[in-house]
Amino acid sequence: MLFEAREKFRLSDRFLDQYRGQQPKWGPLGYVTFKRTYARVVSDGNGRTEEYWETVKRVVEGCYTIQINHCKNLKLPWNPQKAQRSAQEMFRLMWNFKFLPPGRGLWMMGTDYVWERGSAALNNCAFVSTDEIEVSFSEPFCFLMDMSMLGVGVAFDTKGAGKVLIQEPKTGGYAYVVEDSKEGWVDLVRCILDSYVGHVKRPSQIDYSQIRPVGAPIRTFGGIAPGAGPLIECIENIDKVLTPRWGERLSSTDITDLMNVIGKCVVSGGVRRTAELALGSPFDEEYLKLKDPTLYRDKLMAWRWASNNSISATTGMNYDGIGRQTAKNGEPGYFWLENARAYGRVKDGETWDDAKVSGTNPCAEQSLESYEICNLVETFPSLHESYEEYERTLKYAYLYAKTVTLVPTHNERTNAIMLRNRRIGLSQSGIVEAFEKHGRRTHLEWCDRGYQYISRLDKIYSQWLCVPESIKKTSVKPSGTVSLLPGVTPGIHYPHARFYFRTIRLDKTSPLVGQIRKAGYRIEESVYGDNTLVVYFPVEQKNFQRSKVDVSIWEQVENIAQMQYYWADNQVSATVTFRPEEAKDIPMILELYETRLKSISFLPLEDHQYPQAPYQEITGEHFLEAAAKLSHLDFSDLNTEEVKDLYCDGDRCQVPVQVPSPEQIPMPQELDFGHEHEPTAEEREPAEVGAPV
Asked: pTM of the prediction?
C-alpha cells in the first residue's frame, strides 16, 4: 500500500441527486469518446460502465481523499464542511466542462490501484536520459517500459551512444518463468538486455505459460489481456537489434530501436494510451536518417513508427539543412534544452530555477529531469464568459494537479525528483476559439493575470500542505480525446474546417457499435483490414472564423511564442502546419524564434487523400443532411470498456497498433493519430478545502 487511504472522502448524496440520470452538454463526439475511453466498469453486478456523473464523482472523491489523508497523516488543518463545499464546486466545474483532469486522471483517479500502486498511473508524461547507461544498461529502457505500461508517455535521449560495448550473451542453465504482471514483463526485458552487456546470464528457456490468455480481463488496471504474443515478439525484436551489434559500441540507432521495440510491445499489449519521443543530436547524421523510407522501410514498418524523432537544438546553430529536412517530411521536431533550463515564462526573463532539466515529454509541453514524471490538467477558456469566472476555474484545476503530487509513485528515483519539484501543467484547449470569442489581446491578458494568480495560489496551498512550491506550473498540451468531450479545438491548434467529418475507430466487437448504428451514424469497415469499424461524426465548428489552411506558418509560430511569453512556464506543444510555398521559411523561422521558443514541430499541409482520414471537410449542406439522420445515443446499460485509444493524446503521434501499411507510416505524423489581484480572505485562510479554496 503506497498511499494509505484510511479515510475516504464522500460527496453529499443530496448534492449528487441533482446529477443522477443527467447528461452534460457533450461535444459532437463527447459521449461516445467518454464511454469508449474513460468510463470504468461499475461494481454493481450489472456489468455496465460509468455514466459521466459517476466518473466525476469518482475523480473528485479520489482527489479529496488524497487531501484528507495527507492532512490527517501530517496532523494538518482540515475543515470537513469547507472541504465538502470545495469538492462540490470542483464537481460542478468538471460537469460544465470548465476544466478536466487528463485522460489518465479520468480513468484512474479514485481507484484502488492508486492507493495500492501509487500515482504513476495518474501522470501523463515522463523523460529518461541514457546519459548514465554505462552505470545500469537496462534501466532507461525498463523505466520507459514500466511507465508506458501505466499509460505514461515517455521521451528519451540518445546520449548513451558509444558508452557501452555490446557482447554475445552467455547462457545460464535455468528457465525463466515470466510472472503475469507488468512487473513480470519488465523484469524479463531487463534480464535479456543485461545479458548483452555481461551483467547476467541469459536463460536457456523462457516460460510464458503464466501469462493470462488473450481476452482475459485485467482487473486492477482495466482493459483486456493481450496474451503473451507482444512480449514474445518484443524479445525477438531485441535480439534482432542487438545480435548484429556484438563486439560494437551501442549507437544512437540501437537506443532508438530498442525504445521503439518496447513501445510497440506496450501498445500491442493493450495499454490505453502511451507515447514516445526520441531526442537526438542535430549533428548525428545516422539518427537524422532513421525514418527515411528510402533507406529503412522495413524497420520503419516494423517498429520505427513508434516514436516521434526530434533534436535537442542549440541557439546559434545552423538550421538550413535540418530545416529543409523538416520541410520535406515533418521530422525532426525541435527542443531547446538551454531555454527550458533558463526560463519559466519568457516574460519573466532568465531565472535558471529549473537548471536540472534534461529533456521533455513526448508531446514536448513539459520540461523534465531524467526519471521525472508530471501530471497535466486541461482548462477551456473559450467556455468562460469573464476572466473572473476563468480565475475560479484555475483554482480548482490547480488544486487537482497539486493533489496528484501528494501521492508517491512506485519508483524511488522518480519520487526523489517529483516530490522535490512538484511539477504540474495547467493547460488550455480551445485557445484559437478563445482568440475569436474574447479577442487575442484579451485572452493573452487572461493568461498573464491567470499565471500570476496561480503562482500566488501555489504559495498558499504549498504552505498549507507543507510541501515545496511547484517548480513550474503551466503549459499548453496538444490535447486529443479530452478536448473532444466538450467539443473544443485541441490545444493551440486551428480547426480543420467549419464543417467536417471526424472519424473514430472502434473494434468490431465493441458494444458501442449497435447503438451508434441505431442512432443513424455512418459506419464503414476499416480499409486496413484491422478488425475495426470507422464511424463518421458530422461536426460544425463553434465560433468558426478560419481553418488551418487559412492561417500562415508565421502567425501560428507567433501564437506559440506569445503563449510561451504570457502563459507557459513549461512549454507550448504545437504542430505548425505549412503550405508547400511556406516550406522555405522554416530555417528562417527557427533562427528568428530560437530565443522565444522551447519546443516546436511542423507538418506539411497537404491533401493526402488517405481513406477514412480522421478529419474530412464537407459542405454545410452535407453536414445538415448527415446531422438530420441522427438520433439520441444511449449507452447507459452497456459495458463499453475497450482498448482502442492508441499511441498518444495528440494529433501528431497516434498510430495503429498493427504493423502499418506503407500508406499509414507516420512520415510526417499526419495520422489521428500586468494586473495584480489581491487574494481574498478565503484564499488566505488555510482551512478552506479543509484547505484554502
From this structure: 0.90
